[in-house]
User: Fold these one by one.
Assistant:
Number 1:
Amino acid sequence: MKIQFYKYQGTGNDFVMVDNRDGCFNYNNTEFISSICDRKYGIGCDGLILIEDDIDLDFTMRYFNSDGSQLGMCGNGARCVTQFAKKLGIINNSAIFQAIDGIHHAEIIDNNYARVKMNDIDMSNYDLISKNFDNIYLNTGSPHLVINSNDIDKIDVFNEGRKIRFGDKYKKEGVNINFVEVTSDNSFCKVRTYERGVEDETLSCGTGAIAVAVVLNYSNIINKKEIKISTKGGDLNVSFDRVGDNFSNIWLSGVVSEVYKGEINGDIKR
């Protein structure tokens, strides 16, 4: 049976979207999901997102990494699925939806710009050495390691990231690695990310951008309530309120767009 899909991207983070409100998509078939995401033999994407009915909210977002796993939240995917929900007529310009890490609010600013509200972060929950901006671990819906870097364009993100991700410390649960270079005037930063589940560098990472922004502010490197994160796929903006160790009202904003739609031979529940 044919499955209709849509391809979306948010600052280069690309996703296959499927309307699964009828519940027919067999999301337990991880091999099928990873074949969809395969860039040589499938459609090709960083992840698959199903939009599903929710009794109390506008919809449920079910996110899969390109290896077929359901690990963590995807910030850019959340922005894209909000645009997709509008296309399907589920919402107008705002949404409240369920994801793996809880309930999120989202807004469409215009036809190619969307933002999503992420969970609060309490930095007192993490073991930080003198708030030093280097090798800081935190969870922003997905686990991230933030690494202070120089000359970021020359870093071998695939091999360096893979070494950390599959090292003894993080091998079991996995971690996303964010290499960060702050501009000389401390006005914004450049970020490159190795993503678990994709097991490669991605052009952008939403939860990674949030991790970086929070760490930079907490470490008193960039003392702004809105921080620009420059990725290989484009610019993201992270805004927040901070009281002591607590970060709240965290919003991830950036461009999104529909790339194309099509059909693929599918695995349907019977």
Note: The first strand starts at residue 2 and ends at 10.
Number 2:
Amino acid sequence: MTVVSRRNFVKGTAACAAMLETRRLWANPLGLPPALQLYSVRDLLPKDYEGTLRQLGAMGYQECEAAGFYNHAAAEVKQAMAQAGLHCVSSHHALQQLQSLDDILTFGQALGLEYLVCSAPMVRDPAKAKGLGWAAALEAMSADDWKWNVDQLNKIGERVQAAGMKFAYHNHFIEFHEHDGFLPYDLLLQQTDPKLVAMEMDCGWVVIGGHKPEEYLTRYPNRYVMLHIKEFKLEGWKPGQEPVSTEMGHGSIDYLSIFRAAKKAPIRHIFVEQEQFPDMPAMQAMKVDVDWLKSVRS
């Protein structure tokens, strides 16, 4: 029998307590560090990149996902993240940007990213989308356009993997609008190679698209590795209208149900994202969001 001294027992107890406290500070729903999609502070980062990141770190965010680097070199981004106490896990790039992949791969490697994420699909022939807004251009996508996107995602995923990172696809609501008798999102799930293309579910946009995140997490549990969580006030809202953004815990989406379903999937990161700020300034909202994430139980 191993005899444990009182001193070692006390040390072990203290270590366990410290570990539990660290766990408590993490996002409680899935035991993951609080994380933010930096698109939420897109108006602040160009004005004070380092200062904005430091404020977010001081609030309790530990991880982040980039949506642009605002003309900063990878070394500058890496230093700013380290000074803020943030780990930049991934970065978003529209498929049109990913057509010029070499520079994105080099930047991601230098920054030490775990994931590159396709943030939006594209029409195969850009001339087809000329004069159309972003949403209208994607609504105009044909079945052939979506199948071409699948092919592009698989090819990009292979190159990203070869560069030592992982690749994922992030949805909006367009993917849940039926095209030519099929649902584009189902096509993406069924025809992208799971070994090359993971899924980052934006739960809020799934709801706006008329579907339930829980159902997809249950049907395809092994495809999802990251979540975006955002809130909308949906009372009186109708499809086709602009949903009203709000802070986490102040909207209509049942995230407790979503988190319970997400426990079946290998979720590695949960990113808060807020689209607009009708009720309070962005940085105040970021504090409300992270406090909610740290306090919620599922």
Note: The longest helix spans residues 6-25.
